[in-house]
Amino acid sequence: MRLGGFAANAVIAGAILWSLVTTDVELSRLVSAGPRIADFLGRMFPPDPTVMREIVKGSAETLRIAILGSVGAVVLSVPLGILASETMVAPALFRPVRTLLAFVRAIPLILVAMLMVGAVGLGPLPGIIAIAFHATGMLAKFYAEAIDGVSRAPIAALESAGAGPLARLRHAIWPQMAPVVARDTIFRFELNLRESLILGIVGAGGIGFYIQTYVRSFQYDKAASVTIAVVVMVIAIEAVNVALRRRFA
Amino acid sequence: MSAAARIDDLSFAHPGAALPALERVSLSIPSGESVALLGPSGAGKTTLLALLDGRLQGWRGRVSVLGTAFYPDRAPPRPCRPDTGFVFQEFALVERSTVLRNVLNGRLGRMPPLRALSGQASAHDMTVVRAALADCGIADLAERRVDSLSGGQRQRVAIARCLAQEPRLILADEPVSNLDPARAGEILSLLTGAARMRGATALFSSHQPDLARRFAQRIIGMRNGRIVFDVPTSELDEDATADLYRDAGPMSGIGLRAVR
Ligand SMILES: Nc1ncnc2c1ncn2[C@@H]1O[C@H](COP(=O)(O)OP(=O)(O)OP(=O)(O)O)[C@@H](O)[C@H]1O
Ligand SMILES: [Mg+2]
Q1: What domains can be seen in chain A, in order of their start residue?
Q2: Is B53 on the interface with A (CB under 8 A)?
Q3: Three-state secondary-structure class, residue B28
Q4: Per the database entry, which stretches of residues form a coiled coil (chain A) (predicted)?
Q5: Sequence ranges of the domains in chain B
Q6: Which of the ends of chain A has fewer CB neighbours closer than 10 A, N or C?
Q7: pLDDT higher than threshold 90 for residue A35
Q8: CATH code at B3-94+167-259
Q9: B101 vs B89, B144, B145, B162, B171, CA distance in Å?
Q10: Pairwise CB contact (< 8 Å): A160 & B108
């Protein structure tokens, strides 16, 4: 036991040292950073309110990306969730489907978005596809867990009455899992909305596009306005979600 | 083909169990009869009922239910399943659905696949369901959600769902185990009465010999997976019943004490 604890500490210390020594961390740069950050903040202030139109336009597009991406994720997650549940299918099927979903979850959203921009060009479409793809990895897993979490007895009862697998899903499993699905879907929608805020940075549509444009063209006061708008939106999303969660508690 | 159920030299052990739950069981139940299964905890009553419902595989022997032979390696064909209705001891209802929806669920096996999926009941389905609700005395509860009902009311919903199936063989696993004696009599009379009215065969398990005597024409006593006696109710002998429950393990007295 004590040897194990020592080994764990040694590994952690080694990892930190290795990172410090081999990464190009010039502490001297921090010294000159102060005035630069001040200058940066100075240029951000006061935020330029003339970009209101861009903010509204970008936010609306972000919202649309999140909504359509979420719809896509739900459409994909329903069949995949069924195929990943041990209640509905044989191990030979749900095991590979679960592995596939784990792979999908492991690919960062921004990477998917960049690949999609390369594949279908700039704009909201690659963003929607990226969100749908990325969110499915989590949502299908949640749906499968919701299916597997229901009480088995009514399912067996309907099977005994001669109901087929889909009728059992509809009338014995679905009524039990519906509140869980609603909660999980709303939770995932919140994540989709948050994550789609930055998709524009890689050209996949939405409000992030303006942040990237303004920073690149050194219009920090405009970038500041957009950033404030994003922060406000995240806070608003969270507030709405807290209220919704209370309803499902 | 007048036997509703016929079992020949049947043995079965649950997967992973050391001892068989059923050993060399043979019985034949004629159509239209009401039969009670008595026996201490662990005797094999639930196992025998589940077997007749087509839910067990891997047994040895011969089984046929309502003229269909069962095979030990596969479930019976789905079209046969609505003909056998099962009242589960723990009700097995969909708690978040209404009483009506739960009773309609009993019709699913009788509906064409697409209609079963949508759950749209035909006029005939509704007639059968309304009759089942009325027979069980719960017509006024139709729109209530099951999770708002009492135990006795749930019991009635479970029976109504079984009747809505229009089964020719009704299997009931301790349908009155957690009811007071007056309620228990009411429910058993409902179950056996509904079976008689519909010309169906009824087989129910119970821990209460006096109730079995009142509502069954025939009584089968089981112990340790074997049939100990199988007699018309009029010939049931007190000593044989008492023997059934004697020294059958630490839990054996519980069911009987509740009765005597
Ligand atoms: N799923 C299972 N896996 C392993 N053994 C089981 C399983 N179900 C039942 N058994 C065993 O089979 C035997 C018969 O059980 P069964 O449930 O049929 O008894 P019972 O007569 O219905 O008892 P009770 O009156 O308590 O309901 C018991 O020894 C039990 O432990
Ligand atoms: Mg039992």
Answers
A1: 53-247 (1.10.3720.10)
A2: yes
A3: strand
A4: none
A5: 3-94+167-259
A6: N
A7: no
A8: 3.40.50.300
A9: 20, 10, 9, 13, 21
A10: no
